[in-house]
Amino acid sequence: MAEKINLKGLSLKNIEEIFENWNIERFRAKQVMNWIYKKGIEDFNQMTDLSKELRNFLKANACTAKIEILDKRISKNRDTVKFLFRLEDNNVIEAVLMKHLYGNSVCVSTQVGCKMGCKFCASTIGGFIRNLHSWEILDQVFQIRNSLKDVHIANIVIMGSGEPLDNYNEVLKFIRLANSPDIFNISFRRISLSTCGLVPEIRKLALEQLPITLSVSLHAPNDELRNRLMLINKRYPIDSLIKACKYYFEMTGRRITFEYALIKGINDSFENGRELCDLLKGLQCHVNLIPINMVEERGFVKPSAKRIYEFKRIIESNGIQTTIRKEKGSDIGGACGQLRNKFLDKKEGYKDLWRT
Ligand SMILES: C[S@@+](CC[C@H](N)C(=O)[O-])C[C@H]1O[C@@H](n2cnc3c(N)ncnc32)[C@H](O)[C@@H]1O
Ligand code: SF4
């Protein structure tokens, strides 16, 4: 028997073409998409404005694949919900819903694990397993929205496990799908993509001219320090990264956000702050300071609140807009990849959910 076609993660146009090939009226595609994305219904049986005959045909020839929610953890102050998902091949990923005053955001993963090897990151500890398909990235948003019915999702941040630009085509497909009025209708301006700095792909993304926000994980103001923290810097040193960021701004008019995770005694000195200002001089940007989320396996610790504010003042005094990221969900495995690692280590009751 021919394999069923997964309608999840296909655009309206794609589904219309498939239906046309099956001699089904084109407008039925829009009806099916409304059921899936507007009403959250994935079961063809429940699509009551389709004839019984059509529902049976779709059941036999199509499917709406899904990722399964394995666990859902709500932070004590209820502003963060972490989701652990099982994929069809039994791999496990995580995504997070964060409630902000300016609207709720979902942070999605783009890969199972990561191959980039940043020293402070939990996502890379088990290595890289595989890229996610665009529908698997989309389904993280879909399942979260379905599971928290009263929560409106206003923003998507592509900042979960994995390096999105290392999975370029599927991530771009996902961005376009999430933006589509037939799917989530989230404006490009409300989508942020974070990268560790894959220079050729940043340049390629600039040419797409999508007005999304690009966040660059910088974390160090010079090559010597960045080489120690992020292996990618050996391939694409800071100078080439900053040039690519300037190019991105020229092509899109979108200001870059630089992420700088402050690690006590490593990158938080006054000298580091001044060097960072020199590096970013003249660039249209914003700096987001992140108190490092402790990852036991790595032994990095965040600086004191006083030092974090002092660092912020140095950057701001040079006319660069700077924010300190509010720590969210630290009681439920805050850093990306930490919950998945607990699952892989069969900790905290996850042993029973284990399947190979
Ligand atoms: C997990 S990464 C995923 C996106 C992309 N791979 C990247 O590196 O930008 C998202 C952000 O989390 C940051 N990050 C990773 N581990 C962290 C930790 N332990 N504490 C704070 N931020 C961390 C990364 O540097 C990056 O800015
Ligand atoms: S910070 Fe990003 S690129 Fe680096 S290991 Fe983590 S997920 Fe991968």
UniProtKB/TrEMBL annotation:
Location of the active site: E94, C336
Give yes or no: UniProt keyword Cell membrane.
Answer: no
Q: Which PROSITE patterns does this UniProt record tie to the protein?
A: RADICAL_SAM
Q: Where in the cell is it found?
A: Cytoplasm
Which cofactors does this protein require? [4Fe-4S] cluster
Its recorded reaction(s) are:
adenosine(2503) in 23S rRNA + 2 reduced [2Fe-2S]-[ferredoxin] + 2 S-adenosyl-L-methionine = 2-methyladenosine(2503) in 23S rRNA + 5'-deoxyadenosine + L-methionine + 2 oxidized [2Fe-2S]-[ferredoxin] + S-adenosyl-L-homocysteine; adenosine(37) in tRNA + 2 reduced [2Fe-2S]-[ferredoxin] + 2 S-adenosyl-L-methionine = 2-methyladenosine(37) in tRNA + 5'-deoxyadenosine + L-methionine + 2 oxidized [2Fe-2S]-[ferredoxin] + S-adenosyl-L-homocysteine
Highest taxon above the source species: Bacteria
User: Which positions does UniProt annotate for [4Fe-4S] cluster binding?
Assistant: C114, C118, C121
InterPro entries this protein is in? Aldolase_TIM, Methyltransferase_A, RlmN_N, RNA_MTrfase_RlmN, rRNA_lsu_MTrfase_RlmN/Cfr, rSAM, rSAM_sf
Major location, coarse class? cytoplasm
Has UniProt tagged this entry with the keyword tRNA-binding?
no
What's the further remark here? Reaction proceeds by a ping-pong mechanism involving intermediate methylation of a conserved cysteine residue.
Kindly provide the name given to this protein in its UniProt entry.
Probable dual-specificity RNA methyltransferase RlmN
Q: What organism is this sequence from?
A: Koleobacter methoxysyntrophicus
Organism lineage reads as: Bacteria, Bacillati, Bacillota, Clostridia, Koleobacterales
